[in-house]
Amino acid sequence: MQVLKFGGTSVASAENIGKVIAIVTRALAHGPVVLVVSALGGTTDALISTGRAAAAGDESFRQALRQLEARHLTAAEHLLPSAEAQTEIQPWLTAQFTELALLADGIFALGELSPRTLDRLMSYGELLSSRLVVAALQARGIATAWADSRQLIGTNSNFGMAQVVEDMTKQQVLDFKNSTSEQLWVAPGFIAADVEGHTTTLGRGGSDYTAAILAAALGAEKLEIWTDVSGMLTADPRLVRAAQPIACISYEEAMELSHFGAKVLYAPTVQPVRQRGIPMWIKNTFAPADYGTLVEVAPPPSPGVVKGLSSIGSLALLNLEGGGMVGVPGFAARLFAALARARINVVLITQSSSEHSICVGVNESDVAAAQAIVDEEFAAEITTGRLDPLRPETGLAIVALVGDNMRNHPGISGRLFSALGHNGVNIRAIAQGASERNISTVIRAADVRKAINVLHEEFFEATYKQVNIFLLGPGNVGGKLLAQVAQQQPYLRDKLGLDLRVVAIANSRHCLVSDEGGLDLTTWPEALETAPALSLPELTEVIISKNLRNSIFVDVTANPAAADQYAPLLAKSVAVVACNKVAASSEYASYRQLKQLAQDFNTKFLFETNVGAGLPVIGTLGDLTRSGDVVRRMQAVLSGTLNFVFNHYDGTRPFAEVVRQAQHEGYTEPDPRLDLNGSDVARKILILAREAGQPLEMSDVANESFLPASCLEGDVEAFYEQLAVHEPHFRALYDAAASQGKRLKFVAQYAEGQASVGLQQIAPGHDLYELRGKDNVVLFYTDRYPEQPLVVKGAGAGAEVTASGVFADIIRAARL
């Protein structure tokens, strides 16, 4: 005997029912079949809405019933090839809808929809669909018996979620089997009857349960659950695009996953067949050749530790706390007894070892009733201050890891907590049974999609880690960065397992945001021009509200307002990569706050390009200090612009012309004074001093400017005019150095807790003397490098190298 169940999607239309009949026909070749069917897709919801509308006095229920009747009559017309067959079923369908209309009229007249009446109303969905399927099978010459599940499955009178009376059910099923000679039965799912013959239902999703009950009673060879997906998946495919099919799974794993929200299987289904050791297949009606999922007592070993992920939404935590609980037995028993009296199901339980608090998870809809009954139960203790009033917390969900192989396998919890922590998902409560088959975490409901994807990536997607980039400033450097990302995406996926997606690109006029899957990095300039504007706070809100895993905000601007957005982003565990120097060179308290936020929220605040463009200056300094070395002194040329200028100025051309060349070749800011006045270099040595552990402010950095004061007045053209006026000053600086065989370098220095910047004459043999072009260099004198410094040297300006430095920070943040 085989039992096959088909869900609402599988019988949603005449075409789909035809697929069902083809599958059943093939199954009949291997022996007798019991076919259990759900209502046509959407019918049960429509019947519930009809009943509620009628109870509310809304006469629209009549139109809804007419639409349902038309749908079923149309299905009969398409299913049944002959007018004779249609003539037989159509009067029966019409009679059923006449009964339905009378029932709804009664609900309308009373203005009340009791659980018992609702069960009777809902039962029509499966009754109608099962008789349609019987008529279609018989019209195709397949001998079929219709089995009324209300005469097979006996339950108590708990309407809406009736409990099965097993002995009575088994006897009734066997009696029916002995009374019919047909090799094929069709039975409506979901419905049953109590001992008085009143229609009951087995809970939403109960058609699966019906099939399992019949399979167990008959000792079936197998149970097949046919649905619209190819078996159970490692996660909900609506949440995780990369969800993978599970070929084999144990009953225990299936029960855990179905209980925690795996929609493909109704949780109570597993128990009846598990007790009898009946294998259960979960198959796809629309892809019958797919393997699906086989659920059995002892599946073959699987390589993965975790079998699947699941979640339950609309959860609330109830916290009962107070010193009066400590060492006093019976508090937990009273709590659970009180909840049981109110018929409130407890989903999750945790208790601190101090016995000071008990936390239970319940459905959010039960919070008001739970608070009332618990506060009533513990009224005396609350009044005397021994207990606090029950404190509910709503807006939560459970995310669970499930797998038999998790038992005695260390490190699973650590990986779970680490993955969630790195993405700012706060865990409100934890539960793990002694079987170690399930680790359940309570988190914010708003974080479920992110959490499920993060964990799926951690345990099932060893190939790729998705990284979501939000870029501010797609100008010269930002544009080069986007081109580098586009070029390197295949390499990063193949070699580093990083799937970099650019989710948003914003400038001062427009903000282009991806709806799904990331932006096209070949067409973004055109798309950006037509995108709407967003303020910086609005962009921050977009990043936070999207709540994507492994998010990185990349600031390739010099905008002080952009730096104001770092703190709220870091506080949401969004990594920040800043080419912008404002934040790291702002007031020391602000700099420390950002560093602390990154540490507190387990993310990264990286700004390597603040000092040496693409050179690994800050990274090298960090490696020195983290390994226990102490930086005693630093000497550096940190302006590619100034180095370019002084390397090209030899008195044969005006100083102003050399500066214009540097600007034309992209080595200066749009306003070259920002480079030549030394303030940019001062910010850089300030950042290095801070990274070396010194709490300096910008005012602590001595800046000995070589520019005459008049050069800093007016606009950029006035600046160039003043450079020309003061050409003798610049020539004198050059001549004074050249006469001694020295070269001019604008040097940043740090020593003994002091920092300064200024123009210096560098003698031959010094590490700074041979510095060419736009190169930068940093000399680190430390306890380990006291005489011969550690030198970092290379190109310190240019869009390509700066973009590459930002890119390197992105990769560092992504590999956290």
Provide a descriptive summary of the structure in words.
With 816 residues, the chain is α/β, with parallel strands linked by helices. The strands form 5 sheets. Strands 3-5-2-1-8-10-11-9 form an 8-stranded mixed β-sheet, sandwiched between helices. Helix 2 (43-55) runs antiparallel to helix 5 (115-139), helix 3 (60-79) packs antiparallel against helix 4 (83-110) and helix 3 (60-79) runs parallel beside helix 5 (115-139). The longest helix has 28 residues, at 83-110.
Secondary structure topology:
Blueprint (H helix, E strand, L loop, with lengths): L1 E5 L7 H15 L4 E5 L5 H13 L4 H20 L3 H28 L4 H25 L5 E2 L7 E2 L10 H14 L4 E5 L2 E4 L4 E3 L4 H13 L3 E6 L20 E3 H9 L10 H7 L3 E5 L8 E4 L11 E14 L9 H11 L4 E6 L5 E7 L3 H11 L1 H5 L7 E12 L9 H11 L6 E4 L5 E7 L3 H13 L4 E8 L3 H21 L1 E9 L4 E3 L10 H6 L6 H11 L4 E5 L4 H4 L2 H5 L4 E4 L9 H13 L4 E2 L2 H4 L4 H10 L4 E7 L2 H9 L6 H10 L8 H4 L2 H13 L9 E4 L11 H10 L1 H12 L4 E9 L2 E9 L12 E8 L7 E6 L3 H16 L2
Parallel strand pairs: 1-2, 1-8, 2-5, 3-5, 4-6, 8-10, 9-11, 18-19, 18-21, 21-22, 22-23, 25-27
Antiparallel strand pairs: 6-7, 10-11, 12-14, 12-15, 13-14, 15-17, 16-17, 19-20, 24-26, 24-28, 26-27, 28-29
